[in-house]
Amino acid sequence: MQQLLLDITPLPSPTLTNFLPGHNAELLQLLQRVLAGQEPERFVYVWGGPGCGKSHLLQAIVQGYARKKLKVAYFTRGTQLDATVGDEIDCVAVDDVDCLDASAQIKLFNLYNQIRGEGHAFLLVSGHAAPAQLTLRQDLVTRLGWGLVYQVHELTDEEKMLALRSHAAGCGFDLPQDICDYLLRHGRRDLPSLMGTLDALGRYSLVNQRQITMPLLRELLQGAL
Fold first, then answer.
1. Letter string b/e over residues 87-100, b meaning 16 or more CB atoms within 10 A of that residue's CB
2. Which among 100, 133, 151 is the end of a domain?
3. pLDDT at residue 2 greater than cutoff 90
4. Strands 43-47, 91-94: parallel, antiparallel or unpaired by DSSP?
5. What are phi and psi of 119, to 5 degrees?
């Protein structure tokens, strides 16, 4: 179940609409104001553990700006950080700031200064911990705390279960409890992967004209390995 059906069903594009807020309602409302052009704050740092949804939020903001025909720049591990995005950029997102090497940290430090001094871009940065707990340059840590800082709280199992049931109902089928329990105990537990598995299960059920049961789920997963 390592791939968790990622080769069977594409995951939906991250948006603020398909992000379930849980205990992150205030952060979600802030980012909605950002996309609507109603938020004056230009620096936001979000942090949390794996699977909490912080990358989803960064990608949702980037795609939201792009849909409005605005210029964006998105950097994550493995991509080269550009320190001079220029005034033409409207949004910059930097994911996994804790993975930046020394050179990239200097570039991000300069980028903060550039935007604050002469740019108008919105800068959204993510990391695995609060700024003070990161092992980065101290001057960059200070910059990360310049604006608003939010912890992204992962959904509880109960909230994930409700989300799965709601998604299943929207697709026209009931989700048995044993399938919910199995999905939350095995494989990747982030919501997009869970939803992707559920969508694949729904399609597999329709194609084979069989009810959604644990044997059907195991058959699907076995075929995906």
1. eebbbbbbbbbeeb
2. 151
3. no
4. unpaired
5. -100, 170
- Residue 122 φ/ψ, nearest 5 degrees: -90, 130
Q: Please state, as a whole number, how many other Cβ atoms lie within 10 Å of the Cβ of residue 68.
A: 13
Nearest one of 193, 161, 162 to 12, comparing CA atoms: 193
Which strand (E) or helix (H) includes residue 126? strand 122-127
d(CA 86, CA 27): 27
- 200 closest CA partner among 185, 181, 222, 178: 222
Q: What pTM, to 2 d.p., does this model score?
A: 0.83
Decide if 201 contacts 174 (C-beta within 8 A): no
Using N-to-C axis directions, what is the helix angle for 214-224 and 191-208, rounded to 10°?
110
- In the predicted structure, residue 204 carries a pLDDT above the cut 80: yes
pLDDT digits (tens, 9 = 90+) for 3-18: 444 445 555 688 999 8
Does residue 165 share a domain with residue 104? no
Distances (CA, A) of 162 to 95, 129, 201: 28, 28, 17
**CATH classification of the domain holding 41:** 3.40.50.300
Kindly state the tokens that stand for 65: 């700006």
Q: How far is CA 45 from CA 69, 125, 128, 147, 150, in A?
A: 24, 5, 11, 7, 6
6, 200 Cβ separation under 8 angstroms: no
Spell out the residues 6+ positions from residue 59 whose beta carbon is closer than 8 angstroms to its own: 13, 14, 74, 93
Q: Are residues 124 and 195 in the same domain?
A: no
